[in-house]
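Repro:
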Amino acid sequence: ATLQGFLTPPHVVRGAQEVYEIGSGQSVTLATGPLFLSGVRFRFTANRAWNGVPRIIVPIGCHVDVLNIECTTDCTTLQNMVRLMGHCSVGEIRLVAPQQVNNITNQAVSCVNVVGPYAHIGAVHCEAFDKVISIGGRVWREDIEVPALVTGGAHYSTLGSLSVVGYQKALHIQGSRGVTVGTVTASGRSEFAAVAPGRNVVHIDDCDLITVQSVNGRDSTEHGVYVSGGNGDNDAGVVGSRAITFGDIRLVNSGQCGVKAKADDDVGAVPHNSLTIGSLTILGANKMVPDPPPDPSGVQNADGLRLENIEHFNIGSVTVFSSGNYGPEP
């Protein structure tokens, strides 16, 4: 049940709320052109099925001011609720849930999924979802409306700001070039938190020319900020992470490392090249690592700052207190 050309321009809703329910087996494709939907709420009433629905699709040429999204208590594993196909824009996305939604089953899913180039999001506000936004990365072919769009990554896409409360992975950028992110703010470790790869405030994997201006994160499950890659495990052919730039990073009570940058050390893997951090403040790390760790490998993931297999690292200032438990902000 796909609603093509939904809310055809010049559909304008402001003031009184219009509620559209999206249930089992339903998918909404917004119309191309400008849409003004500040008075619309999209309500999800069913979990994700094998073919990726329910979801909202933002197609090429669509430009929408606001997407207000909520879900009912029947939704516990919603994934890919909003998909941006590239060459489109959304001014603001707001997502809320009545209980924590554990949607972190694999790297290909998230609440907001950018699969094509030149997609632009002004701001995302999210409460109670384990994985919030992915830019680029590998997406299942049976779950794609236009497969050709995802083979080149989400190059030159932008995200103005991301604000998250209750999470395991806030932002994942994979296999993309030229992505720019403004501010990322995340706090509140999910009740489903478990030590496993990919539970970070920001995770960058096999990317080139990525800029994140500011990260302010608390309570990560794994590393606060993680830069990985080296084997090109993505659909865009980007191998290794290069020219990754962070402005200011402030991390409190990270689950394992505060910041970890590690390229794969397999034979033939490409080391990271050129990682820059303007200023780094880490207050409390290794909060999810048992003391003492059950095996020596646990120690490798309990540092304030850890670098492995990387060339050309630049940092302006560093303040690290890797021990201690830091309470709420004053």
